[in-house]
Amino acid sequence: MPSPRTLYQKHIDSHTVCDLDDQGHVLLYIDRQVANEYTSPQAFSGLRDTGRKVWRPAATLAVVDHVNPTAPTRTAAMPDAGGARQVSYFEENCRDFGIELFDVLDKRQGIEHVVAPEQGFILPGMVVAAGDSHTTTYGALGAFGFGIGTSEIEHLLATQTLVYKRLKTMRVTVEGELGAGLTSKDIIMALIEKIGASGATGFAIEFTGPAISDLSVEARMTICNMAVEAGARGAFMAPDDKVFAYLQLKPRAPKGEVWEQAVERWKGLYSDHGAVFDSEVSLDVSALEPMVTWGTSPDQAAPVGGRVPDPASQPDPILRQGLQRALDYMGLKPGTPLNEVVISHAFIGSCTNARIEDLRDVARVVRGQRVAAHVRAMIVPGSTQVRDQAEDEGLAQIFRDAGFEWRQSGCSMCLAMNDDVLAPGDRCASSTNRNFEGRQGAGARTHLMSPAMVAAAAITGHLTDVRAFAPGV
Amino acid sequence: MQPFTTISGSAAPFLAANIDTDVIMPKQFLKGIDRQGLDRGLFFDLRFLASGEPNPDFVLNQPAWQDAAFLVTGPNFGCGSSREHAVWGLKQVGIRALIGTTFAGIFYDNCQRNGVLAIQLDAGQLKQIAEVISVPATAQIRVNLPGQTIELADGTRIAFEIDALRKQSLLLGLDAIGTTLQRAGQIRAFEARHLAENPWLG
Question: A200 and chain B: CB distance < 8 Å anywhere?
């Protein structure tokens, strides 16, 4: 009888073209790739320079998302010459190599990791690689996704494979019932705080447990998306009926008999009983409180009812220095209650938290309220389809009435590669994934939290426990 | 790709934890369609003051390390964004190898694809190296990839591990795509079977 295998091992085994050594290196077949305008240009130039072709153009979907503006009225004009050149070269490459492109005016445009699932381009059992670290998002669908650099994009375009080293496996079991006002963002932020920003480096994470089963598919995407902030090179969950229901009506999902056949196969995508993981982590979320970051690394987080930590209490000199540097950058004093930290900006967007369910959460908090006078508040939907749906559901009107800017889709102020950039000293409550120094603008300060928490902060003007602000949300 | 064999030069200590690729290569330098000009962007907010002058406190602006061939790094170096521009920038200022305890996965692979050797040591070994190279007079080291050793100016020799596959590729400066395409027949056969077994993948 074959030995029990983890879900990760099943994915890698079924995609191994051949072993390359006895150290775990394999030539790994990749089913799908998503490409963007900023990490792909040098890969296409490499193909042009060497006269190589794209192995299977239909395996790649191209989306403009990182550099485009998000001003409420959409145009094809880019905010700067560099971005314009990247977009025009992207169009040229897609045309010349036969790759399907959603350009900025396409009704299906949006952030690649929001667009690919909503199109049904990503399916359970797939192995997916893309030139963006948040490709881990696809794990919520039972696909194994991971980020790669530009040289690897070129390798993938030319060969449909990657030279890949098998990872160690980590099982994260999430137990307990999530309290009212808490979201999957709070779960993943608590996990990152617990295991650290490199706690899963070298690992593929499988999330399991009742608290994961309870979540919607979109909420699960938030968890897999941010697993990379703990260093995981991939993170996924066994697909269940919620995943199959989510996918069934998507434009590119298989239909008819092929659908039935696919679902039967997908039902076998789980870790076998008795499969051994290299690491086991458990997290009980019953007593979890809404999380916010106070530092410049995603693991520098605390419950919103907590305080800014004191570097003096850290015995290790290098860690103490790092902590002090983070507080200096963030302009925070040790001991300050987090819910007294005053913000200047509120940003709801990104591949982590800008799907329709996130926007519904925000609408529940801000309905009938007004953004604080000193706050600039922006909502950048994850895709143009999400934007249209939010319009149809009346959410957009709630946002506008509350004083939010209701914008077009793109990566926007998550990484500020377009013209949505914070100024030095600005302080932003953000539904994004990284609070790195300079991430949202040189000298700007980012506090990560759930979309509902950003919404509450936008209204009060300071970090706020959404449960106290809007009971029952 | 430029082969890596044995290289001597100064090693700059840069030991903060979790140095992310946004810090290594800020966003304003990501707007190219080629690899040019990234030497300017490397560690931009750390290397330069608001006035545009070099920041004298930053290690790569100090005489002993301004021509460094190596960086000795803190844990989880290269975390965050997949941007390969970070590695291109390191190469363009002359960095040939990184010596640290842990590197983020995508960054580590990006180094390999660009002929930059990323050496992983345990914390004790790293501390030993950091102490020696942090003194300007003993900042010079020699990294010997064929022999898998780092030689310090005080005569200490530290062995390191590397996968044979990665080592071979670095030593020869191999074109990874060309190497893989030698297996095109195998890939094609795998693909035909895989798509037949999973018709929804086609």
Answer: no
Domain CATH number, residue B70: 3.20.19.10
pLDDT tens, residue by residue, A351-408 = 999 999 999 999 999 999 999 999 999 999 999 999 999 999 999 999 999 999 999 9
CATH 3.40.1060.10 fits A169-210+228-237+272-284, yes or no: yes
In a shared domain, residues B91 and B181: no
Task: Summarize pLDDT for B111-137 with one digit per residue, the tens.
Answer: 999 999 999 999 999 999 999 999 999
pLDDT in tens, A305-344: 999 999 999 998 888 999 999 999 999 999 999 999 999 9
Cross-chain residue pair B16–A325, CB shorter than 8 Å: yes
Q: Which of A247, A320, A304 is nearest to A453 (CA)?
A: A304
Beta bridge partners of B120: B100
The CATH architecture assigned to A7-167+239-266 reads: 2-Layer Sandwich (3.30)
The matching CATH number, chosen from 3.10.20.30, 3.30.499.10, 3.30.450.20, 3.90.226.10, for A292-469 is: 3.30.499.10
Q: Are A62 and A102 in contact (CB under 8 A)?
A: yes
Chain A closest-CA separation from residue B136 CA (Å) = 21
pTM of the model: 0.97
Q: Specify whether B138 is located in the same domain as B190.
A: no
Closest CA to B120 of B159, B69, B171, B153: B159
Task: Please report the number of interchain residue pairs, chain A to chain B, with beta-carbon separation below 8 angstroms.
Answer: 186
Tokens of A361: 């959460």
ipTM of the complex: 0.96
Q: Which residue has the tokens 């999530």?
A: A178
For residue B1, the model assigns a pLDDT of 80
pLDDT in tens, B35-64: 999 999 999 999 999 999 999 999 999 999
Evaluate whether residue B126 is within a structural domain. yes
Distance from CA of B137 to the nearest CA of A (A): 23
CA A260 from centroid of its chain's CA atoms: 30
CA dihedral sign of residues A178, A184, A190, A196: positive
